[in-house]
Design a protein that fits this description.
mainly beta, four-stranded mixed beta sheet, 18 strands
Length: 199
């Protein structure tokens, strides 16, 4: 009986001490969803806790627990390199219904990728990067892909040739003349030259 009383008193004392010191911080995990994060470097911040979020992650969870009715305000302490992220539903009062509603959406910066063309005396040329195409008209001296994501490895290929002409890329970035490979920079980038000649 005496031992039971001592144990009860000890438990009460521990509870008071934890409450005074903040205890474990709460019983709710503050979390959310992430979309389109293709770059490293994102850091989220809430109540002094910095949370790194890696490229490819689709969710996040802060390690510090929060109590019901605690205020939270998730912010971006650091943007990922080469991208911009924004938060919706990142601030509020904690409850089992609100601590999972934050949403971080990201967009990778994009820049134009261009190059020069010589000898394009006919229509029909189509260049492609994946499913994105551009079709410079007869007489054009350049080609441009206006929105290529920062840091991606690209492959420009000749999808169709102009009538009566043979075209090929020149330079060390092209192994076969029909394709040119490279990595997009963090600014407008100049690609390889395309030469066209009569067949």
């Amino acid at each position: 009986m005496k031992n039971l009383y001592l144990r009860s008193m000890l438990a009460a004392a521990c509870a008071v001490t934890l409450a005074a010191c903040g205890g474990s911080g709460g019983n709710l995990y503050l979390s959310g969803q992430v979309s389109n994060l293709a770059k490293d470097g994102l850091i989220l911040l809430n109540n002094g806790e910095r949370l790194p979020v890696s490229a490819g992650q689709t969710s996040f969870v802060f390690t510090k627990l929060v109590n019901t009715d605690d205020r939270y305000d998730i912010s971006i302490a650091q943007q990922p390199k080469g991208a911009v992220c924004a938060i919706t539903n990142g601030a509020g009062k904690a409850s089992s219904y609100t601590v999972t509603t934050a949403f971080v959406s990201c967009q990778t910066n994009s820049y134009p990728l261009s190059g020069t063309i010589t000898g394009l005396t006919a229509d029909g040329l189509t260049l492609a990067i994946g499913n994105t195409t551009t079709s410079p008209l007869k007489g054009s001296t350049s080609y441009t892909f206006p929105n290529v994501n920062d840091g991606i490895a690209y492959n420009i290929s000749i999808a169709t040739y102009p009538a009566g002409l043979t075209c090929s890329f020149v330079g060390s970035a092209s192994a076969n003349g029909r394709d040119v490979v490279g990595t997009m920079g963090s600014a407008a980038t100049t690609g390889a030259t395309l030469n066209c000649t009569a067949q």
